[in-house]
Write a structure and sequence with these properties.
The structure is a homodimer. The first copy, chain A, is of the alpha/beta class. Chain A has a domain at about 35-165 and about 670-690. The first copy, chain A, is built from 18 helices and 30 strands. The radius of gyration of chain A is 26 Å and the shape is globular. The two termini of chain A are about 15 Å apart. Chains A and B meet through helix 4, strand 11, strand 12, strand 13 and strand 20 of A and helix 4, strand 11, strand 12, strand 13 and strand 20 of B. Chains A, B: This is alkaline phosphatase. Chains A, B: Its EC number is 3.1.3.1. Chains A, B: It is an enzyme of class 3 (hydrolase).
Chain lengths: ~725, ~725
C-alpha cells in the first residue's frame, strides 16, 4: 500500500487478505460431508427471493478423508432433488422448470491442522460440481433439498421459506451500522461525552432514546467469529455466509465470482418498489459493509470489480437487474480515478458521469450539488479521516496522496458522516418522494480504529454516528417523514473492549518502571467521574459544560485530561499503553522490529505511547492489530415495525424484519418478465471460465487469478503468504 | 480467612475491604462542595418512600480546600430548607413536621492524589452534621432542598418524586441477578452449550426467549465503575450509592450504621402488601446482592450485623418494620453457627429457629422441608460450590471446614441454584397465595469466577442461571402463576470479557516458547465452531448431541475439548493462559512470590495453567484478580409490565419499573400509624454513639470501631492496610 502516514494505518491494514496460521482449518466451512449443497441446510428465504444453487462433490486424494472416496474420483453422476414438504421429491430441473447444466471440474488444496500446515503437507481435493442460477421459492414452508452422490451417500438441506409480508408498512428504511460497535463502545462513548451528576446523565445519546432495543447474534455461518463481509451479507440478504463473502455462499471453485448468489434488500427495493438506494460510508466505498448492498463475490478484496458492480451490477451469470445506487458517498478514490487499482484501469468518475451521475469530490461540492440527480461522492483515497482528526487534531488531515484524483496532495476538504447522510437523505427524498428508499449509513472507522487499539478515535467516531442519528431524526421530523421511516441502528459484530477504571496519566509518567506505572490505575470508587467533560478544563472545541456543541452535537470538550479511561481490548498484539490520546494520528500499536517487508513478527511499536507500560500480546505474533469478538450487539429500532426488533435474534432476522416492514415478499413469480415465467429462469453459463464478454460484466477473478485449478479459499498454495485478517 | 483450598478462593478474596492505591481520591464522593446534602441533588423517590436526611458541613484543615473555610471550623449554624417547587422554601422541621435535632461532630482524613498518598500527607477534615430520620414525600413533583452554610454558601439538591402507580399489575415479582453478567458472558455461554448448524442455533437460552429486552447503565453515584453493593442498592431502592454501601447514602461519619437510609422494595412489599420475601444466592448470604434487600449500612463488610439485620431489621434509629424474609437460602454459615464471625458470637440458626423458622443445612433436608413455614437454608461456609464442581469435577467439593456447623468436614450435599429457587417458589406460593411475593435470586459466582479469570466456571454458572430461569418459567406455567408474575433478569454490572476465537490446545502445548504458543490461536474463519457440544466426543454428563440433559437442562457435554475458546478479560493481573478448563477447582491467576502475608506484589501463579503463555497485567501489581467494568448490561423482562423494560435506562429505573408494576406508590401518609401522623416521623437518636440498647438492634460498628473520630470511608489511617477491592 502506498499510504505511508499514520492516518492511513487502518487503510493499509484493511487491504490485507489472507489467512492466519491457526486452528480448525476445514475443507469447506459449510460442507462437513463430501457432498455440498448451497444454499446449505437450514437456509431461510424471503418468499420470491432469488438465489443460485451450487452443488459440489469432493474427492480428497489424501488426508484423513481419502478413504471415504469410493473410486478416488469425484462422483460426476450425482443427482439433486427438491421436495416441498409432503409433496414428494422431484428433480431440480423439473421443480424449478430449468434446464440441466453441465458438470464443472476443479481442484483445490487445504491443510487439516496447524501441524500439517507447519509440515507443508496439504490435502488435495478433486471436485465435480454444477450450478443452477436465479431460481426462487414463492410458497412459504419447508423444502427438502437432497444431493445423492457416491451411490448411497446423501446430503440433505432443509430450506425454509418464511411467511414474510407483502404489505408495506414503512415507506423508507434507514439502516445505520456502527462497524464493530459493541455495547461497551456505546457505554464508553456516552460516558466520554455526556455529563453525569450524582449518577444521572444530564444528556444521553440519540441511541439511548430509541423506544425499542434488541440483541443480535453476529456469528458466521461456519465459524463463530464473523468479519464485516459476511455479517453485512446476513443483514442485507437474510443469509449468513463465510468470512470475506459478499452476497454469496462461498464455494470451493477457483473463480471468486461464480459462487451462488442470494438477492439483497437493495436489489429488491429497487426492482420491486422502484425505490431509491443510498450507500454511505466513512470507509473506502468498496469496503465490505457498503459493498454488501449489491456485491456478489466470495472475495471482498475484489475492490475494483465491486466498484464496477455498484454501477453495472453482476451480469456474468443471469441475475437480477441493477440500475446503480442513487447516492454513493465514501472514500476509496483509488478505485475511481484511472489507475492500476481501478477496474480494467478505467476512469470510474467518467463511467458514473456517463450514466447520469453528478460527481463530487469534496465537502464544498457535496453541499452545493443539486438534489435532483443521482450522485457519486468520493472524497479521498482510502478511508475518510476520523472525527477526531477532522475536528480536533486537524494537522493529521495532511496526508499526502489522499487527493481523490490521485494527485500528490491531501484530501483536506472531507465531509463528515453527517454531511454525507443529510445530503443523501435530501437527494433520496427529492427523487423518491413517492416510492421511498433504502439507505445504509456506515460508521466504518469505529471498527478500524478499534483494530489499531486507538480507543479514543473509536469512541469519538461512535459519538459521530450518534450525532448523525440525532440529526437524521431531527431532519425527518422537519420533513414530516419520521413516521413513515423505519430506522434501525446496529453493529455487524463487536470487539472485546471495555473501560475498567481510570488512569492518573501524570502519576503514570512520573514512575520509573512498568510495575510502578500500573499503580496509576484506579478502579471501582477510584475510577471517579469522566474528566472528558470537565467544565474546569479548557475546551478545544465548544465550551458548554455538558459538552453540547452549538448545533446540538455532543462530544467531549477535553480529549487530553489528566485522568483518562483505563480502557483495553480482550485480545491484542504486543503494545505499549500510556492511556493518552494519540495526537499525531491513528495509532500503530505493533510493528516488526526489522525493515524486512516479509517480517511478520510484531512487537510493541517503540514509537507508540511513550512513557507507557508494555503489555505482551495474546494473539499470534503475526497479528499487528486487535480482532473481532463474539459478543452479541445491540439493536435500536424506531418506526412502524419497531416492536419486531425487541428480544434476542440472529443477524439474518434483521433482514427479514426490515424486508417485512417494506413488504418485499413475492408470492408469485413476476408475469411481466418473460425470463421468469414458470417459477425461475436459468440462463446460466456454468463453466467457471466462460464469463460473458460484455465489458461491464467481466469477472476480474478470471482476469487476475492464477490457473483455474490452483486457487481456492483455503488454498495451501497461498498460505505461505499468510497475512493477518484485519476486519 | 480460614478457607485454604482452591474452592474457597473467591470467598477469601471477597472478604477483603479497602482501597487500592489509585486516582481521583475525593473528600466525599457525592459532595464536591463543603456543604453536603443526602439524599443529594437529582435523587428520585417513589411517592411515600421513606428516607433519612443527612447534612454535613466540612472544614478541611489543610490541603487545597483549606482556604475556603472562613474560620477554620465547620459551620454549626447551618440551616436547611425544603421547597415543593413553587411553594416557597420552609425549614425542614416545619416541612416534615419533625423535631429539630442536635449537631453531631467528627473528623476524618483523606488523600487528595496518589502523590500525597505516597508522601503520607493526608488532609484533615472537621465536620458538623445533623440527621432527620424516616421522612417521606407523598406528592409527585420537584422539590428543592437547600443547605445554607458559611454565611453565603449554598448546596442545592433537586429532588424528584416520580408519579409512580399505586395500582397493582403484578401479583409477584421475581428478580434474577446474574452478578457481573455482561452480555458477552451470555453470548459465550450460549455458544458453549447450544449447538449451531450452518449459523443457526438448534436450541437457545431461556433468556433468549424473553419478549422484551432492555439496556441498563450500571455506574455508581460517584464513580463510573460500581461494585455489587451500590448497584444492588440501585435495583432495590431506586437510589444510586457509593461503592460498598447498602441501602444508604454514604456519609463521612465514623459509624457505618448511621448513614442516611432509603426504603427498599422488599420492605415495601412486606409492609404495604403483606407480601412474601425470598432471598436466594449462591454466595455467602451476607454478601452484597442478597444483603441489599433490607440492609442499611455503608459497609458491606459488616456481615455479622447484616445477618442479624435479615432477622431483626434495623432498629437503632427509627425505621420501617421488618419481619424477616420468608425464604433465605445461601452460603455463609460462618455468620450463623456461634463463633467470632457471628453477630455477638450468637447462634443464628437458633435465633432464626426461635422466631419460627425451619432451618435446613443440606440439599436433602431442603427438598424435604415443608412449604408452610418460613425457612432458612444455609448450606456451606463461604460461597456455594459452582456448577462445574458440583456436577463435573466433583472431587473439588471436598473442601475442609466448609461444614455449615463449623466442623472440620466438607459441605458435600449442597443444593444448586435451581433446587433453592424452586423450593423457595413453593414456599412463597404456599404461604402467599393471595398476597403475592418478591423473590430475588442471585447467581453470584458468575462474578466471583470471572474475578479469578476462571472463564469456564463463570460461563457454566451463567448457564446454570439460565437453567433456573427456564425451570422457574416452567414451574409458574404449571402452577398457573406465570401471567401474574413479572420476571426481570439482569446483571448488576459487567466485566470486560469476550471470546475472540479459539485455541488449538494441543498445538499450544507442543510449542516451546511463549511467542510460538500464541500461534495456536485462531480468529475469524479459523475460530471454527464450538467444540464443547461436539457429538463425537465423550460426554462426562448427559449424552445428547445438542447437550440437552434429561430434564431440559442445557450444558456442554465436553468441557475439555482440544479446541477451546480464546477468551480473556480486558484488564487483568499478571497471569498464565493455557485456555484449558481448570479441573482442580477455581483458578488462582496471580500470587505473591514470597511467603510474606503482607506481600501485595502479585505475579502469575507458577502453579496455574501449566504450559500456557505468560500475559503481564494492566492492573496495579497489588491486584490478584480482574475487576468490574463499565459496559451496560442487558435486561430481559416478561410479565404484565414487560413493555416498560424496553429501551435504555439507568439501574435505578428498574426499581421504579418493578415498584410501579407492584403498585407500591403511597400518595398519603399511613393513618393507622400514629408515628406517621403529619407526613413523617423522626424519633431519631442522632448521636453517632447513642444507639438503641435493644439486643437485636446494636450497631456493631459502635462495638467494634475505633474511637469515633478516627474512622472514615476514605480514612488515611486505614490506607496503609490498603487491600484490593474484589467485588
Amino acid at each position: 500500500m502506498r499510504f505511508s502516514s499514520s492516518l492511513a494505518t487502518s487503510v493499509a491494514c484493511s487491504c490485507l487478505v489472507g489467512q492466519v496460521a491457526a486452528q480448525t482449518f476445514r475443507r469447506l466451512g459449510t460442507c462437513p460431508t463430501l457432498g455440498c449443497v448451497f444454499p446449505p441446510d437450514q437456509a431461510d428465504f424471503l418468499p420470491g427471493q432469488y438465489f443460485d444453487i451450487r452443488l459440489e462433490v469432493h474427492a480428497p486424494l489424501n488426508g484423513s478423508e481419502a478413504s471415504l472416496v469410493p473410486s478416488g474420483n469425484p462422483d460426476t453422476e450425482f443427482t439433486f432433488t427438491i421436495e416441498k414438504e409432503g409433496g414428494g421429491a422431484v428433480p431440480v430441473t423439473q421443480f424449478f422448470g430449468v434446464e440441466e447444466t453441465e458438470i464443472e471440474r476443479w481442484n483445490f488444496t487445504y491443510y487439516e491442522t496447524l501441524f500439517t500446515q507447519t509440515a507443508e503437507t496439504p490435502v488435495f481435493v478433486d471436485v465435480a460440481a454444477k450450478a443452477y442460477r436465479k431460481v426462487a421459492l414463492y410458497e412459504p414452508g419447508n423444502y427438502i433439498a437432497t444431493l445423492n452422490y457416491y451411490g448411497d451417500s446423501q446430503t440433505v438441506a432443509n430450506w425454509t421459506v418464511r411467511a414474510g409480508s407483502n404489505q408495506r408498512k414503512a415507506k423508507n428504511t434507514i439502516l445505520f451500522i456502527g462497524d464493530g460497535m459493541a455495547q461497551s463502545f456505546i457505554t464508553a462513548a456516552r460516558l466520554m461525552a455526556h455529563k453525569i451528576v450524582n449518577g444521572k446523565y444530564q444528556t444521553t445519546l440519540a441511541m439511548d432514546k430509541f423506544p425499542i432495543t434488541g440483541i443480535q447474534m453476529t456469528h458466521s455461518i461456519d465459524s463463530f467469529i464473523t468479519d464485516s463481509a459476511n455479517s453485512a451479507t446476513a443483514l442485507n440478504t437474510g443469509h449468513k455466509s463465510t468470512v470475506n463473502a459478499l452476497g454469496v455462499y462461498a464455494d470451493s471453485s477457483p473463480d471468486t465470482f461464480d459462487d451462488p448468489k442470494v438477492e439483497t434488500m437493495a436489489e429488491m427495493v429497487q426492482n420491486l418498489l422502484g425505490g431509491g438506494i443510498g450507500i454511505i460510508s466513512t470507509a473506502y466505498i468498496a469496503d465490505a459493509t457498503p459493498a454488501a448492498l449489491n456485491a456478489h463475490t466470495r472475495d471482498r478484496g475484489e475492490y475494483a470489480a465491486i466498484v464496477d458492480g455498484f454501477l453495472n451490477g453482476y451480469q456474468n451469470y443471469s441475475w437480477v437487474d441493477w440500475k446503480g445506487p442513487d447516492v454513493l458517498f465514501g472514500g476509496g478514490a483509488e478505485q475511481f480515478y484511472p489507475n492500476e487499482d481501478s477496474f480494467l484501469g478505467r476512469d470510474y468518475y467518467a463511467e458514473f458521469a456517463n450514466q447520469g451521475y453528478n460527481v463530487v469530490n469534496n465537502a464544498t461540492a457535496l453541499a452545493q450539488t443539486p438534489n435532483d440527480e443521482r450522485t457519486l461522492g468520493i472524497f479521498t483515497t482510502g478511508n475518510l479521516a476520523v472525527w477526531l482528526d477532522r475536528n480536533i487534531y486537524t494537522d493529521n488531515l495532511n496526508v499526502s496522496e489522499t487527493d481523490p484524483f490521485g494527485g500528490e496532495g491531501a484530501a483536506i476538504d472531507q465531509p463528515g458522516l453527517k454531511e454525507m447522510t443529510l445530503k443523501g437523505l435530501e437527494i433520496l427524498q427529492t427523487q423518491y418522494a413517492d416510492e421511498g428508499f433504502f439507505m445504509m449509513v456506515e460508521a466504518a472507522s469505529i471498527d478500524k480504529m478499534m483494530h489499531v487499539l486507538d480507543y479514543d478515535r473509536a469512541l469519538t467516531d461512535t459519538l459521530e454516528l450518534d450525532d448523525v442519528i440525532r440529526a437524521t431524526i431531527e431532519h425527518l421530523t422537519r420533513t414530516g417523514d419520521l413516521a413513515d421511516t423505519q430506522i434501525v441502528v446496529t453493529a455487524d459484530h463487536g470487539h472485546g473492549f471495555d473501560v475498567m477504571g481510570s488512569v492518573d496519566t501524570v502519576y503514570l509518567q512520573a514512575q520509573d518502571d512498568d510495575r510502578m506505572k500500573r499503580g496509576a490505575v484506579g478502579t471501582y470508587e477510584q475510577s471517579g467521574l469522566s474528566q472528558y467533560v470537565n467544565p474546569n478544563t479548557s475546551a478545544p472545541v465548544g465550551s458548554d459544560k455538558n459538552a453540547v456543541y452549538p448545533n446540538g452535537e455532543v462530544f467531549p470538550n477535553n480529549f487530553d485530561p489528566r485522568y483518562t479511561f483505563l480502557q483495553g481490548a480482550c485480545a491484542f498484539p504486543d503494545r505499549r499503553e500510556n492511556y493518552i490520546v494519540h495526537k499525531d494520528g491513528p495509532r500503530t500499536p505493533a510493528v516488526p522490529l526489522t525493515e524486512d517487508e516479509d517480517d511478520e513478527d510484531y512487537y510493541a511499536n517503540p514509537e507508540d505511547s511513550p512513557g507507557g507500560y508494555i503489555v505482551n500480546g495474546t494473539l499470534p505474533v503475526g497479528a499487528p492489530q486487535g480482532v473481532h469478538s463474539l459478543v452479541d450487539v445491540s439493536v435500536f429500532a424506531m418506526g412502524p415495525c419497531q416492536m419486531d426488533f425487541a428480544g434476542v435474534y440472529n443477524s439474518i432476522d434483521i433482514f427479514f424484519k426490515m424486508a417485512d416492514c417494506m413488504g418485499l415478499a413475492r408470492y408469485e413469480a413476476p408475469t411481466n418478465e418473460a425470463s421468469n415465467s414458470g417459477s425461475s429462469n436459468s440462463t446460466s453459463s456454468n463453466s467457471a471460465s466462460s464469463n460473458s464478454a460484455s465489458p461491464n460484466s467481466v469477472a476480474p477473478a478470471a482476469l487476475n487469478s492464477a490457473a483455474p485449478n490452483s486457487a481456492a479459499p483455503n488454498s495451501a498454495a497461498s498460505s505461505n503468504a499468510a497475512q493477518w485478517q484485519t476486519w
